[in-house]
Design brief:
With 248 residues, the protein is an alpha/beta fold. The protein contains nine helices and eight strands. α6 links the parallel β5 and β6.
Length: 248
């Protein structure tokens, strides 16, 4: 395992600037967020000019890309944009792409079909699709997320334990999904707040890392900390990097 950080830690910043911030914080590996309407790289850009997008993701200022978090436009080009992002991943030697699950209320069979299509597209380029565990979405329940992995062959999980601690699951066990994990998003969390200062939350990083090791997980421990008013964002990112590195 190794420590990485997401460009999504710096929402609103252009890709180059987010990468520069992570270099200054002494990260060596990066997850690149590719989201519709974001200030960074967008799925429509990747589809419109794949070669330029490849060049941008190779010019990462000594950071090694290890994952993409992709959220295409929910329109006619949804699958085409995702397919282009898979080709971008292959060209930059990235294996894991994280996608979000459908919002609560999305018909279950419709979600299964969408995920099957994404996994099928990804498999053409050797890409592993990880479904993000997230409150307010179908994946907020670990049992449902596990069933989706069982029904959609090849689907993995991007584990964000914060949503199982702070969300409706309220700190219940999520051991059943550990064997499906292909990527992670990490911060510190309490049952009342999704993000708190490092060391003030309830996530047992040592235990989590041990569980992942037992299942043969060898990918990223990816820091995902958003800016919060009156909190030293840079300091929190640095503390999280050092904390995770101390457990490896």
């Amino acid at each position: 395992m190794f420590v990485a950080a997401s460009t999504d830690c710096f929402p609103g910043l252009p890709l180059d600037e987010a990468l520069s911030r992570l270099v200054d914080l002494e990260f060596s590996r990066v997850e690149i967020g590719i989201h519709a309407g974001d200030a960074g790289l967008q799925p429509a850009e990747v589809l419109g000019d794949l070669e330029r997008s490849i060049a941008r993701c190779r010019n990462t200022q000594r950071l090694t890309p290890v994952a993409f978090a992709v959220d295409p436009d929910p329109g006619e080009e949804y699958y085409q944009q995702f397919a282009a992002c898979c080709k971008l991943a292959k060209a930059t030697k990235v294996v894991a792409i994280t996608v979000r699950s459908g919002e609560l209320g999305t018909p279950y069979n419709e979600e299964v079909q969408r995920l099957k299509e994404l996994v099928s597209i990804g498999s053409e380029d050797g890409i592993v699709v990880g479904l993000l565990t997230e409150s307010g979405r179908i994946s907020q329940d670990p049992e449902t997320a596990t069933v989706l992995c069982q029904q959609v062959k090849g689907l993995g999980i991007t584990l964000d334990p914060s949503h199982f601690i702070c969300g409706p699951h309220k700190g219940g066990s999520y051991n059943q999904i550990i064997k499906h994990v292909v990527h992670t998003h990490l911060r510190d969390t309490t049952k009342e707040m999704l993000q708190v200062r490092i060391g003030q939350g309830e996530i047992e990083y040592s235990r989590l890392i041990t569980q992942l090791q037992i299942e043969g997980y060898h990918r990223a421990l990816c820091v995902q900390i958003a800016p919060v008013a009156d909190v030293d964002h840079v300091g929190e990112l640095r503390k999280m990097r050092l904390l995770l590195e101390s457990h490896l």
